[in-house]
Design goal:
By secondary structure, this protein is α/β, with parallel strands linked by helices. It contains 10 helices and 10 strands.
């Protein structure tokens, strides 16, 4: 039996339930037709997801695994990965040189760096139409959080700007060996069709991070450092707190900040 590792800050946990592994890989939606689809699996461990991904003849699979022992296991178990198994850290992989065109991402994300993985994905969002992943349930709920809720935060906004996020199912502790102390969840992200924000994207990201880092303050107070000493204009958005703003309102706020800085 093969296990897929769930790397956590407090240790390693292995998925032992094959039906859950199949559910995860089946959650990757392929477009109609018979065109091959490029897929990157992050952190395959010993390959319980890899096995099912390789069964689909349409999937052109590459895997990224940083752990040397897991790499040796994968090489022995899946010789067909000889040229597509990369002993690399996803966070530093040259993805633009690894793939020719679009590619989807799947994996059991190491829980202690899952946020870093999503920030990396955002850097290549134009080329990643879909992500299916298992991660800590609490993190999954934050990513799918909606405006007006406590779970809504920086990554909720930045990811939902470009992706529709579906919370697919919860994974109980008992399907891992050894059982972790937290539940896991599987989510799916698919590009939502938005190709422009109508504002400076770099500033948008800065506005989102700045306001949520001081989420107890009204936006009028939290954006002061971004205004270069200029007075904040009169606008109802500035009287709200960041968790109350939709993506469109964050874009509007970004334009407001930009106009204030430029003196318009």
């Amino acid at each position: 039996m093969m296990y897929v590792r769930a790397k956590k800050a407090l240790g390693q946990h292995f998925l032992k339930d094959e039906s859950i592994a199949r559910q995860i890989t089946d959650s990757l939606l392929l477009p109609a037709g018979d065109v091959p689809v490029q897929v990157l699996e992050i952190g395959p461990g010993t390959g319980v997801l890899t096995k099912y991904l390789l069964e689909n003849p349409r999937i052109r699979l590459q895997v990224a695994e940083i752990d040397p022992e897991s790499v040796e296991c994968l090489k022995a178990t899946f010789p067909q990965l000889l040229y597509t198994l990369r002993q690399q850290d996803f966070l530093t992989m040259p993805l633009d040189k690894t793939f020719d065109g679009d590619f989807s991402v799947i994996g059991n994300f190491p829980y202690n760096i899952s946020s870093q993985i999503f920030f990396r994905i955002l850097e290549y969002k134009e080329h990643i139409p879909q992500i299916v992943c298992m991660l800590q349930k609490e993190v999954a709920e934050r990513l799918a959080g909606q405006p007006g809720t406590k779970t809504y935060g920086i990554l909720s906004v930045l990811l939902q700007t470009w992706y529709d996020i579906e919370y697919l199912f919860t994974v109980d502790e008992h399907v891992f060996l050894p059982p972790p102390k937290v539940k896991s969840a599987v989510i799916r992200l698919r590009k939502n069709g938005r190709d422009s924000l109508g504002c400076d994207e770099k500033l948008f990201k800065q506005v989102v991070k700045t306001t949520f880092n001081q989420r107890r303050k009204t936006i009028r107070n939290s954006v002061k450092p971004l205004l270069c000493g200029r007075p904040a204009p009169a606008n109802d958005l500035l009287e709200k707190r960041p968790e109350q703003l939709s993506i469109e309102q964050f874009a509007e706020l970004t334009r407001l900040v930009s106009e204030t800085i430029s003196g318009k």
